[in-house]
Write a structure and sequence with these properties.
Order of helices and strands: HH
Strand content: under 5%
Number of strands: 0
Oligomer: single chain
Low-confidence stretches: none
Shape: elongated
Length: 76
Amino acid sequence: MDELSKLSDSELKDKLAQLKEDLEDVENERSFIFKQSGMHVSSGKIVAQMEEFDAESKKLKECINECDEEIKNRGL
C-alpha cells in the first residue's frame, strides 16, 4: 500500500487500530451469524456468506500486515 507511506505516524497507528477493530467486528459477526441454532438457511447461502466473511477477513489481515510492516520500517 503506497498510500501508507503518505500517512503521518499517528494516522498510521490510527489506521492500524481501525483495521483491527474492523477485523474483530467481521469475526464477531461471522461467529454470531453461524451460531444461530434456530435459523434455517440453505447451505448455498451459508457457503456464500462464509466465503464473503472469509474474503473480507483475509483482506483486512493483509492490510493489517502492511500497516505493521510500515510501522516496523519507520521504527515506531
